[in-house]
Automatic annotation (TrEMBL):
<dbReference type="GO" id="GO:0043546">
    <property type="term" value="F:molybdopterin cofactor binding"/>
</dbReference>
<dbReference type="InterPro" id="IPR006657">
    <property type="entry name" value="MoPterin_dinucl-bd_dom"/>
</dbReference>
<keyword id="KW-0479">Metal-binding</keyword>
<keyword id="KW-0408">Iron</keyword>
<dbReference type="Pfam" id="PF00384">
    <property type="entry name" value="Molybdopterin"/>
</dbReference>
<dbReference type="InterPro" id="IPR009010">
    <property type="entry name" value="Asp_de-COase-like_dom_sf"/>
</dbReference>
<dbReference type="Pfam" id="PF01568">
    <property type="entry name" value="Molydop_binding"/>
</dbReference>
<feature type="domain" description="Molybdopterin dinucleotide-binding">
    <location>
        <begin position="638"/>
        <end position="719"/>
    </location>
</feature>
<protein>
    <submittedName>
        <fullName>Molybdopterin dinucleotide binding domain protein</fullName>
    </submittedName>
</protein>
<dbReference type="GO" id="GO:0051539">
    <property type="term" value="F:4 iron, 4 sulfur cluster binding"/>
</dbReference>
<dbReference type="GO" id="GO:0016020">
    <property type="term" value="C:membrane"/>
</dbReference>
<keyword id="KW-0411">Iron-sulfur</keyword>
<dbReference type="GO" id="GO:0030151">
    <property type="term" value="F:molybdenum ion binding"/>
</dbReference>
<dbReference type="InterPro" id="IPR006656">
    <property type="entry name" value="Mopterin_OxRdtase"/>
</dbReference>
<dbReference type="GO" id="GO:0008863">
    <property type="term" value="F:formate dehydrogenase (NAD+) activity"/>
</dbReference>
<dbReference type="InterPro" id="IPR010046">
    <property type="entry name" value="Mopterin_OxRdtse_a_bac"/>
</dbReference>
<feature type="domain" description="Molybdopterin oxidoreductase">
    <location>
        <begin position="116"/>
        <end position="558"/>
    </location>
</feature>
């Protein structure tokens, strides 16, 4: 049994004795509520219905209405309130796009504020801007271009922002009916290393536990993850975890203020006095996680703080890992990790004494060239104590977007079919039988490969549902050049973005999409904890001629292959869910979701329950890892990109309410700043072979020789060719730092 929270107020857990954290730096969530009311004042009733009945389109926590599945009570966060306006705003006047030169200097936030995309629009080479067209003209143009092209020269991309399972499923089925597997989604550039590493080690490619396991477990560790910023509703769980005696620990290059303390607005004790979360921070170098964890495991073995029975009976490759660790010296592990042997011991002692633990990680672990091995290092640590497949234990790659978990599971992925099946001849034949038409057995282009193909004039059509490659991909200048090479670009979205405004090689088409709350029949999303949740249609105002993405892609596929029309048609989303349940075994049950509150958690509360691992030999696999080190030349720093007050690439404020840092901040350790004679606010230049970035010094509790800048502004410093084996770009670099003036 997990420890139960003690609901008596406890001053030892308070962040400050000052009521409501007066003078402290943290988000004013009450002001966010006032702001949301004012911003949505023209459609306040509709906004309320969305909040009260819809499933959140923010992070993948999966709140339905203003309740979730972990705790009773009111649940609403500032991320959801900031996104609310995207669902309630009215349409912009199409004449605003008649001359794009007037818009090209606008920031993305200003383009969003114009309003919703109301109608299909077209711009041809030589045109100053876009003109309104009919849906028939738009789909005829796209389908004719697809038919005139080769399937290998097509590219389809789906963002994760608010995207639902039905869209993912229909899009990938439509694309595959056209003979191509070049369909990818935003999971490729965030948690694809997690999926790959989990699949090859424990056989389960998703979070193994539930959020309930956070509250009352012995140890809750966050690796490269800042949930206070990216999944703020979870701070309520952290509060109750602390009240239940859970020890919270962070391993990161920066002592994140929001993970140290927070004022949870919906809990009176925390709203007044705040809550201290992480008791311990272990600061490591960029790419130092593997070395740090290898050192921790060496201590666990040396002190016999391991579960020998579990290792012997339920795992393989332990002896190979042990032999490799014996070869690795403490001096090397200290140099690579940036942590001392004593710090590794301290963390190992916490793990060793814990009977139960949950390990959570995010982009700080995955968005590296070695992202898969970073995840495997965390899995190795969990396997030392059998921290998987039982209550209060688990491996959790926490998702930052409401739609991303279902993307690959629906098959909207260039490297897997629905259900996570590998793309090969055998599975292509199986899927072909399900659908009644031939499916290609050839692996498709991943996201970065689509951009590379465009750069080489090897892509004829790019159909992007949401997303903005100019902001999310490394080396934005090269991305812009590549996009301008594509003869036909199609952008389907609810708002305008700057990638839509790039000059057409031949033609650019904009298509208006509905939000998830406008889709007839309702839709579903899959949360971080594998909970498949029904989100009903919310009656209210509708925008122009906006249509659901799934419906448009199905119609497009029928125009490309009219002979398959009967196989490429769904009357309703409910009919589609019937097929999903048949094609994707773990989603059996989705066909029964019809009303608000309907949900199920595929795989149950714990995957690998009872230490039954769905691997070929039925056992979990340790990974033998040999971390490498990039020597830092004099004057150089490791630089990582971080999020501020934003949702994905959607920057919402110039100042981050949690850290106090402005968008141009270069977070740097005070020791490094002193050596370089730098003080807060000084202008500095970061440069390497890929680009230059000007910012201002922001002295922060960073690991020495490590700095951080905001993403996507820092993307100009990144090598577009550097990515992990699963295809996630490396959003980190080495830079030289110089003072300006």
């Amino acid at each position: 049994m997990l420890h139960k929270p003690n609901k008596i107020w406890n001053p030892s857990l308070w962040a400050s004795w000052k009521p409501f954290g007066i003078g402290e730096q943290y988000p004013n969530n009450y002001w966010e509520g006032v702001r949301a009311v004012w911003e949505n004042r023209d459609r306040l009733s509709y906004a309320w219905d969305i909040l009260n009945h819809g499933v959140c389109d923010g992070c993948s926590l999966g709140t339905t209405g203003m309740k979730d599945w972990t705790l009773d009570g009111f649940h609403l966060c500032n991320v959801r309130m900031r996104l609310l306006r995207l669902n309630t705003m009215s349409a912009f006047d199409p004449q605003q796009l008649a001359d794009v030169s007037l818009l090209q200097q606008k920031r993305s936030s200003q383009l969003r504020e114009m309003g919703r995309v109301p109608y299909p629009m077209r711009r041809d080479k030589g045109d100053k801007g876009f003109r309104r067209i009919s849906w028939d003209e738009a789909l005829d143009c796209i389908s004719e271009r697809i038919k005139a092209s080769n399937p290998e020269r097509l590219g389809f991309y789906v963002t994760s922002r608010g995207t639902v399972n039905e869209t993912y499923y229909a899009v990938q089925k439509a694309v595959r009916s056209m003979g191509s597997n070049n369909v990818d989604n935003a999971a490729r550039i965030c948690h694809s290393p997690s999926t790959g590493a989990l699949k090859t080690t424990i056989g389960a490619a998703a979070t193994t536990c539930s959020y309930k396991d956070w509250i009352g477990t012995d140890l809750l560790v966050f690796f490269g993850s800042n949930v206070a910023n990216n999944q703020p509703v979870t701070v309520k769980y952290l509060h109750w975890a602390k009240k239940a005696g859970t020890r919270i620990v962070c391993v990161n290059t920066y002592r994140e203020p929001g993970m140290e303390r927070y004022w949870v607005p919906s809990i009176p004790e925390s709203a007044i006095f705040g809550t201290k979360f992480a008791e311990d921070f272990f600061l490591v170098n960029l790419n130092g996680d593997q070395a740090f964890l290898n050192g921790v495991i060496k201590h666990l073995i040396a002190n016999n703080w391991i579960d020998s029975n579990f290792i012997k009976n339920y795992t393989t490759n332990y002896s190979q890992l042990q032999a490799e660790l014996e070869r690795q010296t403490w001096e090397d592990l200290e140099q690579i990790s940036g942590a001392t042997r004593e710090e590794m011991y301290a963390f190992a002692e916490m793990v060793g004494k814990a009977e139960k633990a949950v390990f959570v990680w995010s982009m700080g672990i995955t968005q590296h060239e070695c992202g898969e091995d970073n995840v495997r290092a965390i899995i190795n640590l969990a396997l030392m104590k059998g921290f998987v497949g039982r209550e209060g234990c688990g491996l959790m790659p926490i998702r930052g977007h409401s739609g991303v978990q279902g993307g690959a599971e629906m098959g909207c992925y260039s490297t897997v079919f629905p259900g996570g099946r590998k793309i090969n001849a055998e599975n292509a034949e199986l899927i072909s039988k399900y659908w009644g038409f031939n499916v290609s057995p050839k692996t498709g282009l991943i996201t970065s490969e689509m951009i590379a193909a465009a750069a080489e004039n090897k892509l004829d059509v790019l159909f992007s549902i949401g997303g903005n490659f100019l902001e999310v991909m490394p080396d934005p200048d090269s991305v812009e050049t590549a996009l301008k090479n594509i003869p036909l670009r199609v952008h389907m979205d609810i708002v305008c973005s700057n990638q839509m405004l790039l000059e057409p090689t031949e033609t650019v088409i904009i298509l208006p999409a509905t939000t998830r709350y406008e889709v007839p029949g309702g839709v579903t999303e899959t949360s971080t904890e594998r909970r498949v949740i029904f989100s009903p249609e919310i009656p209210g105002p509708r925008v122009g001629e906006a249509r659901p993405e799934w419906e448009v892609l199905m119609e497009l596929a029928r125009r490309v292959h009219p002979e398959l029309s009967d196989k490429l048609h769904f009357e309703t989303t409910a009919e589609m869910r019937q097929e999903i349940a048949q094609v994707i075994p773990q989603y059996a049950g989705i066909q029964h979701l019809k009303e608000q509150g309907d949900q199920f958690q595929y795989g149950g509360s714990h995957l690998c329950f009872g230490w039954k691992f769905p691997t070929p030999n039925g056992k979990a696999h340790f990974s033998v890892l040999s971390p490498s080190f990039d020597e830092l030349p004099a004057g150089y720093f490791f630089v990582a990109t971080r999020r501020g007050k934003q949702f994905n690439s959607m920057v919402q404020e110039r100042k981050d309410a949690i850290t106090g840092a402005l968008r141009e901040a270069v977070l740097i350790n005070p020791i490094d700043a002193e050596k370089l004679n730098l003080k807060d606010g000084d202008k500095v230049l970061l440069k390497n072979d890929w680009g230059e970035y000007q910012g201002r010094v922001y002295i922060a509790p960073m690991k020495p020789r490590n700095i951080q800048v905001h993403w996507p502004e820092g993307n100009i410093l990144l090598d577009k060719n550097k990515r992990s084996s699963e295809g996630v770009p490396d959003y980190n670099a080495l830079v030289c730092l110089e003072k300006i003036g």
